[in-house]
Amino acid sequence: MNREIIVTTDGSNSIAIPAMGVTYHSTHGAIQESMHVFIESGLCFIKTINSYPNTLSIFEMGFGTGLNALLTVADAAMTSQFIYYETIEIHPLETDIALSLNYCDQLNRPDLKTLFTQMHQCEWDIAIALTPFFTFKKMKTGLAEYIPSRLFNIIYFDAFAPEIQPDLWTVTVFKKLYHAMEENAVLTTYCSKSIVRKAMAEAGMQVEKIPGPPHKREMVRARKSSPMKLI
Question: Can you spell out the DSSP letters for 112-140?
């Protein structure tokens, strides 16, 4: 699989797979998309709920470039929030490509480079305390084979689009994730297609469309409880 580093509009890198015609992030800005979809709409949102555990558990579908995990560990350090982070990836990036990504420079956080390297180079299937506030576990497996280690407060659903990976946007998949969610947990994703929202709703999630990142009108946030109107 030929993968190439590209520069998105906000200056941050993403990965393109020319043969598939896909990129790992929005070409309008990788960092700004991840910040909006996963950090602001997921991690920051869950903190507005009156009661949440001392340690937040996060599952990410698709480790990819590691950007979502990097932004999460940065937030954990800033807020002193304990986070357990579990992610799966069946096609990890080549080390030279992963370590060439410019996220720490773009964030003006050179202090995070060692952590970013550790995420990409650490052993698979082992939970590792990367900081006093952040425990990280990555698993080289597909979602069908994945067995959650616990219930999660937040799910970052960052698979390729339904037309590229249709098997990951089904009722069966979202039922599996529903059963891996704590009460009042949230799932966020950039995709707001009606077939995706209907699959989530059929799996038992309460689904809402919310404003998307720049250049994308809508995205989806789903919860395990607290009924919302399906749009």
Answer: GHHHHHHHHHSPTT--EEEETTEEEEEE-
